[in-house]
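Final report, Chapter 2: Outcomes

The project's central promise was a pipeline that accepts a single protein chain and returns its three-dimensional structure in a standardized token representation, suitable for archiving and comparison. That pipeline is now operational. To close this chapter, we reproduce one record exactly as it appears in the project archive, with the input sequence first and the structure output second.
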Amino acid sequence: MIAPTYPTHHTKDLLKTEVISCPVCQQERNKEKYQIRGWKIVECESCKFVHVNPRLEKKELLKIYSSNYFDNKEVGYYHYTENEILRKENFRKWVYDALPFLNHSKPTQALDVGCAAGYCLEVFKELNWKAFGIELDKGLADSLRKREFEIFDSPLVNATTTEKFDFICLFDVLEHLTDLAENMKKLLSILKEDGIIVLVTPNYGSWQRKLFGKKWFQFKPIEHINYFDRRSLQKLVTENGFEIVQTKSSGQFCDIAFLENRIRKYRFHFLLPFFYFFVKLFQLKTKHFYIDTASLYVVLKKKPF
């Protein structure tokens, strides 16, 4: 399959975009907050939700995720599997942090939405859970089936299943989704009554976004089309049948290469000599660190009736 042509500030007009109402409250009026590579990031004048508008049409977005998303220089991840150890550490921490909210008196069925290479599914297996995943990349989905995972390769809202789940995670997924209300309703329908959902998504209200402005590394307007803060996320989930049982800041495990990349991205080149000095002095070259990367970690359950 030929990879799609990805929009940049030069090619954006060649692909189909759509003007949308607010994904959270459906109001039409908004004001521009940032313009990044020709894409407008706007704030709803009614509920203050921040999103990309206009954005790529749904079918264009699906092209992005269906092939080469996890090994692409232009959009998505480049050499996703090269950071397997770090990614597994992230997923293990995020899953284990939610265990106190889970009913452990019965076997657990778990679903990872956007499971990529299956690293989170492997964490489920460590816990002796029955592991399911949703992955739009057909090649990855097929490879996971060969490893005997139960995989759906259609978008969440279209996934056909009679299963109900005790644990559902969307790790760095919510910022990508169109049709937010429909996706939340789907999650509600497949979650067991005492089950939980765990979300990790970039935090628009973070100090990092306020400090770096349009240079914030989470601004990826081709694929990151939703930007939540605590208030807007609370509004979305409570209006769609959920309540929040925990919200906290989230980070990720990284290595020296990641930290060096961030220093260069934000053009703090004057820090590099000091950075290299401390790396050598404290022998940090092979160490892993857990740092705040400006995301929200949220645990949901169904509202009681």
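Archive annotation: Residues 100 and 196 are 11 Å apart (CA to CA).
This record, like all others produced under the grant, will remain available to the consortium after the project formally closes.
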